[in-house]
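Data availability (excerpt). The following record was deposited with the supplementary files.
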Amino acid sequence: MVQSPSKILKSDYRLWDVSSGAAVAEVYKDEAERSSLITSRLYEVLEFVIYENSQSLVNLKPNQKLMLMPLFGKVKINGFHKVIETGELFVLETKEAQQITVNNVLADWKSDILVLIIDQPVSENVYRVNHLDLQIRNKLNFLDIGFSFPGFIGLFNGRESGRYVLKNHCNKMFAFVINGAFEFQNRLMETRDAILIWDIEELEFEALSEDALILFLETQ
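Predicted structure:
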């Protein structure tokens, strides 16, 4: 199989910014200059480990969409009453710059969260909490409704394979392994590894472990 060009983002080489309340690692960031003509693109992916009874900040620019997913633990967003826990996705779309405070509500455990920030036109501020349905295995499920580009999550058994055909062959594919191991075009990706692939029309992948959990985003 011919490999498409890619950028592999191994978790072992990730740098963590450690403070009194949390440790934060940059998984991915699009370094291209932000255009005044907002188009939909994946801007930044961060992993936060928030300490017991502590908090951390997420800074958003105008016309951005925040997707916050607890990988372990429970968190609460300042200004919102609901506690967000594993299996749920908090989504916020904002017209203006905002600073979001994320609180770990656990007294005895750290909370590990994945944060995805997407540039996109926003007409009004909205938020919602989505339940991530992983009851049906070995298929990709939508992360959110109304996406200007597709995003999916899937739980796979070992040796199960899948494929995804890009909606636009000019787009790129971002993948983040939440748990387990996968193979993408002869590339081994393990827990917390990420990859960005381009010049690709169709992506084939295979789970190499049981209960392997993967997240995909198609982006410009």
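Summary of structural features: The CA atoms of residues 158 and 208 lie 5 Å apart.
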